Every structure is written in C-alpha cells, then in structure tokens.
Amino acid sequence: MAKKVEKGDIVVPGQELYEGEEFTAGDGAFESGGTIRSRFLGAADFRSEDSVQVIPRYNPYVPSQGDLVIGEVERVGPSNWNVDIGCPWSAFMHVNAAVDEYVDHDDDISQWYGIGDVIVAKVKGVTEGMDVKLSMEHENARELEGGRVISVAPAKVPRIIGSKGTMVEMIKDATDTMIVIGQNGRVWIDGTGESLAVEAIRKVADEAHTDNLTEKMEEWLEENGGDI
Q1: At what angle do helices 166-175 and 194-206 cross, to 10 degrees?
Q2: Is residue 63 part of a domain?
Q3: Rounded Cα–Cα distance for residues 218 and 226 (Å)
Q4: Do 150 and 201 meet the contact criterion of CB atoms below 8 Å apart?
Q5: Which among 33, 56, 79 is the end of a domain?
Q6: Residue 24 scores a pLDDT above 60
Q7: How far apart, in whole angstroms, are the C-alpha atoms of residue 167 and residue 146?
Q8: Is residue 172 part of a domain?
Q9: Quick one: 129 and 156 in the same domain?
Q10: What global pTM score does this model have?
Q11: 163 vs 175: CA distance, rounded Å
Q12: pLDDT > 90: what percent of the chain?
C-alpha cells in the first residue's frame, strides 16, 4: 500500500494517486487495476480516512452515458472517428455506431464525417479508464452545418435551457435563430440574430445564480433589439 502523492499536490488526469486497498476512489478519482488515478487537473485530497479525492481547478465536462454532446471531428481512422467534446478524455465513434449501411473495410469513412465537421452525438458509454464511446443512434444526433459554436460551463447548461426549455425558446424566438445545446457546454447557433443570441447565452451563463433571470432576459432582449 502506497500513496503516490500527498494532500494538496497538483495532479493531472490519469495520474496515479494511490495503490492498495486501504483507500477507495472518491470524487474526481477512479480505480483501475488496483490503482486509484485522477480524473481531473486539480489538487489531491485525502479528505477522509478511507478515500482519496481530487478537487478540480475548474469544472470540466464529465461524460455520462446517454448525454447528448456537441463535438468536432479531429481525426478520421480506418473504422472510427476521434471527436473533441471538450473534456480531458478521448472520445471516439465507431463506424458501426454512426452509419446504418454496410461499410467495406476499404471505404473512406470521411465521406460521412470529415475532419472539422461538427456533430451532435450521444454518449454510448464510458469505460473505467474514461474512454468515451459516441454514437449517432439518437433521434437528435446529426451533423450541424454552418452556424457558430460557443462554449459555456457545463454546469450552466440547465439554466440556459430553463424550466421546460423556456429560456432557450425565448432566446431562439427573440433572435430568429436555431440553437442546439450539448450537455458538454457546447452551444451551436445559426440564424439571423446569431450575434445577439450568442450575447444572450453568455449573459445567462454569467448571471445564472441570480433570481428572476427569465424576466430580466426578456427585458434585456427587448432593449437590445430582440423580437419580444
């Protein structure tokens, strides 16, 4: 049994924290093959007598099965795509999870999705080692063409969507835009009032902690040229 780091040490994703059976993996850590490793860039913390945790320096997106995310294809392999979804771990999508038709091993799969393409995909699964498997097997999964992608803190996504979608629908209607929000904090915007929609979404993210935000945003949109 051995600690690999001390309390307060800065650690990076995948770094060994502890090997043995005395401690279990707490928040921000995971166990693999008898070794506890860090999920995040942050500070190691042996907070309790039986678990080791990592306190992140920022709040990254942590993928969960079933999430819908917005990603950008960054590599095309013989049978899969590597996709940037804005988290510290690798995300990949196998051709069998993306294409309904038969694909021969000699086919160039970039005919479906090429480097730089932006997609909405479902998190099909996450391994113990935090390999993220993506899939297009969802009714809302698709390629997003044109428009603009911005990033917000993933924790702010529920506030941007609003109760029963009220906030995002108001912004879409007021700015004459289409908006798609990924649970990884990526937001795709396309339409006439794209710039105003971007500003509105960032304002909601900045003021997510305040009360009566929907009413405040309605007034703000009207004052800034939104069609309210």
Answers
A1: 150
A2: no
A3: 9
A4: yes
A5: 56
A6: yes
A7: 23
A8: yes
A9: no
A10: 0.74
A11: 19
A12: 60
Residue 117 corresponds to which tokens in the numbers above?
A: 């393409």
How far from the centroid of its chain's Cα atoms is residue 81's Cα? 17
pLDDT at 19 over 70: yes
* pLDDT for residue 96: 93
CATH number at residue 28: 2.40.50.100
* Beta-sheet strands, E only, within 115-183: 118-126, 132-135, 142-144, 148-151, 177-181
85-122 per-position pLDDT tens digit: 998 888 999 999 999 888 887 788 999 999 999 999 99
| Number of domain units in the chain | 3
Most distant CA pair in the chain, distance = 64
- 184: three-class secondary structure by DSSP: coil
Do the beta carbons of residue 213 and residue 89 sit within 8 Å? no
Which residue range(s) make up the domain with 195? Answer: 148-223
Judgement on whether residues 133 and 154 belong to the same structural domain of the protein: no
Comparing C-alpha atoms, which of 158, 97, 181, 180 is closest to residue 132? 97
Write the CATH number for 86. 2.40.50.140
Residue 61 maps to a domain: no
Conformational region of residue 39, where left means phi above 0, alpha means psi within -120 to 50, and beta covers everything else: alpha
Rounded Cα–Cα distance for residues 34 and 36 (Å): 7
Residue 112 counted as domain residue: yes
Last residue of a domain, one of 144, 170, 187: 144
**Per-residue confidence (pLDDT) for residue 1, from 0 to 100:** 57
- 54 pLDDT tier (thresholds 50, 70, 90): confident
Identify whether residues 174 and 214 lie together within a single domain: yes
- At 176, the pLDDT band (50, 70, 90 cuts) reads very high
